Amino acid sequence: MKKLLCVFSLLVLFAACNKENKPVDEGKSTNETAQSNTITAKRYEVKSGIITYEIENNMMQGKMTQILYFDDYGAKESRETITEMKMMGQSIKSHKINFNKDGYMYDLDLEKKTGGKMKGLLPQGMEVDINKLSEEMKKEYNMKKIGTENILGKECDVNSMDYAKMNMKGTVSLWQGLTLKSDIDMGKIKVKTVATKFEENVSVPASKFEVPSDFTIEDMDAKMQEFQKGEK
After folding, report:
1. DSSP string for the chain
2. pLDDT per position as a tens digit, 153-201
């Protein structure tokens, strides 16, 4: 599961790196510059949406469904994952959701009403930094546009990637900054993700980006610090 989450994180970076970085005119006022920076920082070109994905993993037998909720052009985003699979003879059933809020990454178990939080991987404003480093990152990930394909009526750019540091390669199909399909090979692990439903510019429940009041949340950073102290 950790490697699967890593795949999704890299796909988010991959989508951000493929956005054009438009320069800001020097003659603009401070307010106009701030507005331009906000536009540049958009993760997606669609204001809001709910995308349902079906995920195939060669290491698992069964079904994995993920639902992406996003609002404010990606400033708010969460991923809800429903798993019903068998792995190495064991049944795996889970219903989780993860999102970033106030500098923390939350991972919640919707069945157990528990979860953990740790310093987020995508703090506010990181999208702007990614755009500034896009050319450098494109080289590191060896990203190339290799064609187009139609997914759910959307004309997507198909891009190849070959990230040697993680032994990861494959293709990603993007539309307006959103990943609608990916086929990733990490050696023994192969993950294919395809969007099966896209609700565009819809009202997304605020609850998808909040921690329910009846959940028990553990601070994973504090737990790690306690563990490290105990080892000394």
Report:
1. -HHHHHHHHHHHHHHHHTS--PPPPTT--HHHHHHHHHHHT-S-SSS-EEEEEEEEETT-EEEEEEEEEEEGGGTEEEEEEEEEEEETTEEEEEEEEEEEETTEEEEEETTTTEEEEEE-SS-TTHHHHHHHTHHHHHHHHT-EEEEEEEETTEEEEEEEEEEGGGTEEEEEEEETTEEEEEEEEETTEEEEEEEEEEEES-PPPGGGGS--TT-EEEEHHHHHHHHHHHH-
2. 999 999 998 988 888 899 999 999 899 999 999 888 899 999 999 999 9
φ, ψ (nearest 5 deg) of residue 212: -55, 145
> Is the entire prediction scored with pTM above 0.85?
no
Burial 158-197 (b: 16+ CB within 10 A, else e): bbebebeeeebbbbbbbbbbbbbbbbbbbeebebbbbbee
Tokens of 68: 């992406």
| Cα-based angle 96, 170, 40 (whole degrees, multiple of 5) | 70
- Sequence spans of domains, the chain: 2-200
Take residue 144 and report the two structure tokens written for it: 């190339």
- Enter the CATH code of domain 2-200: 2.50.20.10
Q: Backbone phi, then psi, for 44, in 5-degree steps?
A: -125, 160
Average pLDDT, the chain: 80
pLDDT digits (tens, 9 = 90+) for 109-132: 999 999 999 986 544 433 333 344
